[in-house]
Amino acid sequence: MQPVKADAALIIIDMQKGMSSPVLGRRNNPDAELNVRRLLDAWRHTQRPVIHIRHISRAPGSVFWPGQAGCEFQVALTPLELEHVVEKNVPDAFANTGLERWLRTRNIQQLIFCGVITNNSVESSVRSAGCLGFDATVVEDACYTFDQTDLTGRLWPAEDVHALSLANMAMDYAKVMDASQVLARLGQATHL
């Protein structure tokens, strides 16, 4: 596997206070926030670009409706002043946000994704990144999702939804690694 480049961007999707709302249901991967924090600390330490994505809902009553505490970033993952923040209104972080242009003007090609919800905002953003030609990696243990009921009424455990979403992304759009694998590749970038 290739090293994590010196200009690789860490893209943290929707790590907002609203994700802890009980209305979202049972989730998988209880250590996801710790792994996101490990990645964030490493990116800050090595002075790589960090992009925080924030969902601002258009649906009244959403936990991400503007002006509510749910829109705020989780305290441990709050952006620093110089870190880029992108606000989105749909799951895909590239749709009508200027994210692609921001990356292209800086010649950033390698993107490392983490955050929530695996099968929603993460997957839609990663699919766009892959289609746009970016070198995308998803950090599987720094993402999570929730139990989901399909159109037939069957309840799928969050673990299964997460695994299938990762498989979808790995098929054509991105590499899938865990946080330790990504962090181990940071040191390999020094010879680039």
From TrEMBL:
One of its GO terms (molecular function) is hydrolase activity. Residues 8-180 form the Isochorismatase-like domain. Keywords: Hydrolase. Gene3D superfamilies: Isochorismatase-like (3.40.50.850). CDD domains: nicotinamidase_related (cd01014). InterPro entries: Isochorismatase-like_dom, Isochorismatase-like_hydrls, Isochorismatase-like_sf. The keyword Hydrolase applies. The keyword Hydrolase applies. This is Nicotinamidase-related amidase. It comes from Pseudomonas deceptionensis. The lineage of its organism: Bacteria, Pseudomonadati, Pseudomonadota, Gammaproteobacteria, Pseudomonadales.
